[in-house]
Design goal:
This protein has 921 residues and is of the alpha/beta class. The protein is built from 32 helices and 27 strands. Helices cover 41% and strands 14% of the residues. Helix 23 (675-692) packs across helix 29 (819-830) and helix 26 (752-766) packs across helix 28 (803-816).
């Protein structure tokens, strides 16, 4: 069944269409109130020009029946006053025109009496995080320019990204357009031009779209550095960011502007948001990861059939392939009406799908995060989310893909793949109602990005170290950059550090006779330009038909395990591998063979703190007997068995369960902190236990908790309170000693050297140590791995103080283990009441963790047999007659519980007591 919203939840869609305008009115309404029109603040020298621009834009608004929102007028006013800031408003509310029309009013000039006036120089830089957004954004910016054509100097427009043709790029090299839509990587390439200060010095406004998408990663740091360079050339430049899903607005604005003096505009636009769930007929009381599989397919088809256009989001590309193929097999009459969209498909395929969505020709598109961001698809009425959204912000972002216009309702329906995921639907609604959205933070001092930027600036006219140091410290990411670290970066780009000083390839920037640092070699300059950027992924291999078109790309490691004749599912097609040559997998169509499904890295998203806390609140309500939502009603049989055999977690209690089986002694702990933190916590607890007595542990984790399994008996009631303690530190230094002790324990509990080395591979690529090849010259992941491993060993042996090694350790802790969340989780757990429940049999919460270990140890056939047998036994013990549906049905679901590159999200790891603590990285 589906939990349906009331008919009153939906507002009638406004007539016509258009992007980002204000309130829409029918033509018969009286003229607009002049007091509500965009304000104009003409300067004495440009009053007549700005009045003409204002009049033309007002007429353009009125012709579409629009009336500006207050937040749009606030932004226009701030831009007219030369201020910078951050605009935060719901998706589809009109953020684009709030900023763009303000720029046109502020920077347009009246047309002079000449036959063909030249367009203004580059005036507005519009940064977008995705190339797919560039063309759509450009179309939106061009629409009001048509209304201004007769009144003002004509603006030229253009986009510049990796998709820009060589002819257009060549024309832009001669003269950039008045407004340029580009990406962070393409902006850095512009900064690397020898005449960068001349071509970019005319920029009067920089706009960063979807700032939330960039803020929390190295691409956001790249943007901060680029904006600092633009501010150096034009101190009066206005900088504006736009976002729809941020929980820490002041911090986000400070990271964008480099100071706290900006204007924060929050658009409060009435918009109906409906979040409901597509619920199964019954919720299995003993679930496992992905156990629902495709059982929800008939209901998904019903929902798609009932809507004009639907987006079906999955969390991984492999899941999108499975669901697209399943939809097509169930409804072959939808061939040509449904499509697939993810980042590994060829650009032409993706563009065809996007145009089909815009025109309303497609009934449904199965997609991943490739369609998360602000492309306008006005025909989209519904969004279905397969599986957990993992976070409130992501849920809001995807919901905004439907009803993407002011006044239109947005609706997202959650389709669970796991019984406990149903609780997340109710939790997400409660979190959004309370205004709880995840915060995003800028990375602190990533030196690989800074080193790359130094070489970029050296190419772009050169730099004087003291001046650039002050400029870099003006960014939020590097505001605490020390002189010692700065000097290390200079030494690294000038000679590669002490271990590489004999190699000329690492003399990438050196001072000239005047003390200006420049790139001394044209060959090194070309290499650097070819490798600018911070997006790092595993080496990919093109997939192409024999004698035909390119389909897309898959990760090299997947294809490397295949042999000619093997089949795989890709791009919604069943393909047979013919041969591999020159980093291309040549394929042909196949039929009737059981395919493999490619898996890509990048799909291992942990549950956010915000959503996890909301889930625990819902469990606490269930524990008190309050099953008010449809989702809790559906999952009630599972929660009641959990409460009867053990307990339900609450914000005040920490639930632990112990069980003895033929495999050994099990501990199940439920911190609800996300899989990354749980892996760190499980490793830490296993290591602490091993300090009392040498033991071997197997570990399994999911987003709700983790399992420790020992072949020998463990006295958990006695040991658990001890190993859950906070580390003891020095009383001085505000807990610095305790933090250092925790870091030592976490690193000691893991194979930290191997994990940090994996992080170093990415750092080596971003910092320019590894050259990834010229266009058409792809290097395999084995070559790149060998190169990074060589640098790792050389630095460890001959340059142990190399700060890139330290960065690898810091990123390991911050990103893979989320050490901040881990520390916060330990602190929270220390303040909770420990509820330790000995079990006679697995509970609904512990059973999924046991299955994770089965998956690591056994084949799919054996796992399916084990699951079916255990579910039958547990159901009998619970007084039920429901079974898992047989071995074949269980086996068919096993592809749905794994994420990432074909491995379980929480691999089994063995822990032994170390003979001595490992050396620091």
């Amino acid at each position: 069944m589906s939990t349906k919203p009331d008919p009153g939840d939906f507002l009638p869609p406004p007539p016509g269409e258009g992007r980002g305008g204000g309130k829409r009115h029918v033509r018969s309404e009286p003229p607009l109130d002049e007091s509500r029109l965009p304000p104009s603040r003409p300067t004495p020298s440009g009053g007549r020009s700005k009045t003409k621009v204002k009049t033309a834009l007002d007429a353009w608004f009125a012709a579409r029946g629009w009336k500006p929102f207050k937040f749009q007028r606030d932004v226009w006013k701030a831009i007219a006053q030369g201020q910078s800031g951050l605009l935060h408003a719901t998706t589809g509310a009109g953020k684009t025109y709030a900023v763009w029309l303000g720029a046109l009013q502020a920077f347009s000039r009246a047309r002079k009496e000449t036959a063909r006036p030249a367009p203004p120089p580059l005036t507005v830089l519009w940064l977008t995080p995705m190339r797919a957004l560039a063309a759509d954004t450009l179309r939106a910016l061009q629409q009001p320019l048509e209304a201004l054509g007769a009144e003002v100097h004509p603006w030229s427009t253009g986009a510049r990204s990796g998709d820009t043709s060589s002819a257009e790029r060549s024309a832009q090299n001669q003269r950039l357009p008045s407004v340029l839509v580009t990406t962070p990587e393409s902006l850095s390439l512009l900064l690397a031009r020898s005449d960068a200060s001349e071509v970019l010095g005319s920029v009067r406004m920089a706009v960063v779209d979807e700032w939330h998408e960039l803020l929390g990663n190295k691409r956001g740091v790249q943007v901060q550095l680029a904006l600092a360079r633009l501010k150096r050339w034009n101190q009066g430049i206005a900088i504006w960011g736009m976002s729809a899903t941020l929980g820490n607005l002041r911090e986000a604005m400070r990271a964008l502007l480099g100071h706290d003096e900006g204007v924060l505009v929050q658009g409060q636009v009435p918009k109906k948001l409906v979040i409901d769930s597509l619920l199964p007929g019954r919720a299995e009381r003993f679930p496992w990861g992905g156990h629902l599989g495709l059982t929800m397919l008939p209901q998904v088809i019903e929902e798609i059939a009932a809507s004009k256009t639907t987006l079906v989001f999955t969390n991984t590309r492999s899941q999108s392939e499975i669901w697209y193929q399943a939809l097509l097999e169930a409804r072959p009459d939808w061939a040509g009406l449904i499509a697939l969209h993810h980042g590994s498909l060829d650009r032409e395929v993706r563009e065809w799908v996007e145009l089909g969505l815009k025109s309303g020709e497609l009934k449904a598109v199965v997609c991943t995060s490739s369609l998360d961001l602000g492309v306008d698809f006005l025909p989209v009425e519904r969004v279905l989310q397969i599986g957990s959204p993992k976070g409130v912000a992501r849920l809001l972002q995807r919901a905004g893909r439907s009803g993407h216009a002011p006044g239109r309702p947005s609706r997202i329906t959650l389709v669970p793949t796991h019984s406990i995921e149903m609780v997340e639907g109710a939790a997400a609604r409660a979190a959004i109602a309370a205004g709880h959205i995840e915060a995003r933070h800028s990375p602190g001092q990533p030196l690989d990005v800074l080193v790359q930027h130094l070489v970029t600036v050296a190419l772009g006219g050169g730099f004087v170290p003291d001046d650039l140091y002050a400029e870099v410290r003006g960014t939020a990411a590097y505001e605490n950059l020390s002189r010692e670290t700065w000097q290390w970066c200079l030494d690294f780009v000038s000679q590669g550090g002490p271990s590489l000083s004999a190699y000329p390839d690492y003399r990438r920037a050196v001072p000239d006779a005047e003390g200006v640092w420049r790139v001394p070699d044209a060959r090194l300059a070309r290499r650097h330009r070819m490798n600018i950027g911070t997006i790092v992924s595993d080496a990919s291999m093109s997939v192409q038909f024999l004698g035909g078109a390119k389909i897309g790309s898959v990760e090299e490691g997947f294809v490397a395990r295949m042999k000619p004749g093997d089949c795989f599912l890709f791009g919604g097609r069943l393909l047979e591998l013919v041969r591999i040559h020159d980093m291309t997998a040549w394929v042909r169509r196949a039929s009737g063979k059981r395919p493999a499904v490619p898996r890509w890295n990048g799909g291992r998203m942990p549950l956010s703190n915000t959503l996890a806390d909301a889930v625990v609140q819902q469990l606490a309500l269930a524990g008190d007997g309050a099953y008010g939502s449809p989702e809790l009603q559906c999952v009630r049989p599972l929660l009641e068995i959990q409460q009867q055999w053990s307990a339900l977690p609450t914000p005040q209690t920490l639930l632990a369960e112990t069980l003895t089986t033929r495999e050994g002694s099990h501990l199940f702990l439920y911190p609800f902190a996300g899989r990354h933190v749980h892996l760190g916590l499980a490793s830490l607890l296993a290591w602490r236990v091993a300090q009392h007595e040498a033991r071997t542990f197997s570990i399994a984790v999911n987003d709700y908790g983790f399992e420790l399994l020992s072949a020998t008996e463990v006295d958990w009631p006695a040991l658990l309170p001890q190993v859950l303690r906070l580390p003891e530190g020095n009383e001085e230094g505000d807990g610095e000693g305790a933090r250092a002790a925790l870091l030592h324990e976490v690193l000691a509990s893991l194979n930290a050297g191997e994990l940090a080395q994996r992080r170093f591979r990415e750092i080596a690529r971003v910092s320019g140590l590894i050259f990834q090849g010229y266009p058409g010259e792809k290097r395999s992941s084995r070559q790149l791995q060998a190169s990074s491993s060589l640098f790792w060993e050389v630095f460890r042996k001959y340059d142990p103080g190399n700060r890139l090694l330290q960065q690898a350790e810091q990123e390991l802790l911050a990103q893979e283990l989320e050490i901040g969340r881990l520390r916060a989780s330990l602190t929270r757990m220390a303040g909770q009441q420990l509820v330790l429940k000995p079990l006679a049999r697995p509970t609904p919460f512990s059973f999924p963790l046991m299955v994770e270990l089965f998956r690591e140890k056994l084949s799919n056939e054996n796992v399916a047999d084990r699951i079916a047998r255990m579910v039958e036994q547990l159901e009998k013990a619970a007084g039920g007659v429901v079974t898992a549906g047989g071995v074949d049905r269980v086996k068919s679901t096993l592809a749905f519980g794994r994420e990432g590159a074909g491995k379980p999200p929480a691999p089994r790891r063995e822990r032994r007591r170390p003979s001595r603590p490992p050396p620091p990285l």
